Amino acid sequence: MTPKTRLPIGHLVTTRRSFSISPSFSAAPAVSKYLPSAAPTPTSTRSPTPHPNGPKSPAPTVTTPSTTNRSEPKAQKPKPIPASIKLAAEVRKRATSVTETYIAYSVCEKLIKECASQADYTIPQRREKDGVVPKGADGEDLGVGIGWWYEELGLAPTFGTWAQVTFLHMYILTVRLRAFPAAHAPSWHQHLLDHFFYSAEDRLVREHNIHARSLRNKYLKDLFTQWRGLLAGYDEGLVKGDAVLATAVWRNVFGGKEDVDLVVLGEVVSYMRGVLMGLDGMEDEVVADGEIEFGDPRSQRKVVEARSKMMFTLPEENTDVSRE
Predict the structure, then answer these.
(1) Backbone phi, then psi, for 200, in 5-degree steps?
(2) Which one of 157, 211, 222, 280 is most buried, counting C-beta atoms within 10 A?
(3) Residue 226: is it exposed, middle or buried by C-beta count within 10 angstroms (0-12/13-18/19+)?
(4) First to last CA, the chain
(5) What are the φ/ψ torsions at residue 144 (nearest 5 degrees)?
(6) Burial zone of 317 (CB within 10 Å; 0-12 exposed, 13-18 middle, 19+ buried)
(7) Cα–Cα distances in Å, from 259 out to 36, 52, 59, 234, 250?
């Protein structure tokens, strides 16, 4: 099994494979093999006709060939192309798109599991006979979660938090998938999104005991609306700068709360930039292999706390503000 590639820190050393997404079919026999060979061109044995005013030459001796040695070419009927050869040619035309669908489906399933594991949580009370699930301030079920997003950022282990953190990592992958060839990217985008909703619906049933399909569909439609808005917000942030990106993160991941630590917000933005840079340095075939593991966001603390080279310190005599 190919070792996972950890992002975003360090050099990327992975086992590369060919990005051909169609299976290797054995080469079919050439079609020309089944076509008739060209008939041989007869060679003339006649002597050239002498010029009327030129010197006369003795009449050439004409030798009549024996009828037993003479063989005239016979018209050959073309051999029919076997049905297996026709089938192989047709499969080669269709195999690329069909096979890619299965590959993208399988790889995107692995990628979504990696995205969803970043802010995973459980609700142990659901497994107890008379367990009472605690509720948050907004009425959401509170679970138990570990990791950077819960322990250091202080996010509540709820379904909404899990969805937003998963969305953030899905967005990072989506940006990289956009760089795939135009004929391949749409299939990968769709399978990535489909697998998220499969995972979200399973979580609603397993952890939140929501068995009514109509209620689950309501949650899923709301998630899709959030995803569409998130794409626009994060795209704008990538183009306009870290301040705009931080605003989008604050609005989506932190729910627009006023008491958010700006250093923590900067860590998330730096983490996103670092992972995007790591993915940008990977070849398409490595990404398409699906063996990707996100790095530790804790590594961005030093990056955020480092003083920018563009910042300067005011002279000491100007630091005191006169109150006259």
Answers:
(1) -65, -45
(2) 157
(3) middle
(4) 73
(5) -125, 120
(6) exposed
(7) 84, 116, 119, 22, 11
* Residue 302 token pair: 């030093």
Angle at 279 between CA 275 and CA 280, to 5 degrees: 115
Peptide bond just before 60 cis, omega within 30 deg: no
CA distances from 39 to 103, 217, 226, 277 (A): 49, 72, 72, 64
Q: pLDDT 10s per residue in the chain (324 long)? A: 555 555 544 332 233 333 333 323 233 333 333 334 444 444 444 445 555 555 555 555 545 445 445 555 555 666 676 666 665 555 555 545 567 788 889 999 999 999 999 999 999 988 888 888 899 888 899 999 999 999 999 999 999 999 999 999 999 999 999 999 888 899 999 999 999 999 999 999 999 999 999 999 999 999 999 999 999 999 999 999 999 999 999 999 999 998 899 999 999 999 999 999 999 999 998 898 888 999 888 888 888 888 777 666 555 554 454 444
Task: Provide the H-helix boundaries in 117-241.
Answer: 148-151, 159-177, 185-206, 213-240
Residue 198 φ then ψ, to 5°: -60, -45
Query: What one-letter code names the amino acid at 22?
Result: S
Q: How far apart are CA 151 and CA 157, in angstroms?
A: 10
Beta bridge partners of 144: 122
Q: What is the pLDDT of residue 129?
A: 81
**In terms of DSSP bridges, do strands 5-7 and 144-145 run parallel, antiparallel, or are they unpaired?**
unpaired
**What is the token pair recorded at 321?**
């503000």
Both tokens assigned to 159: 């379904």
Which pair of tokens denotes residue 268? Answer: 């998330």
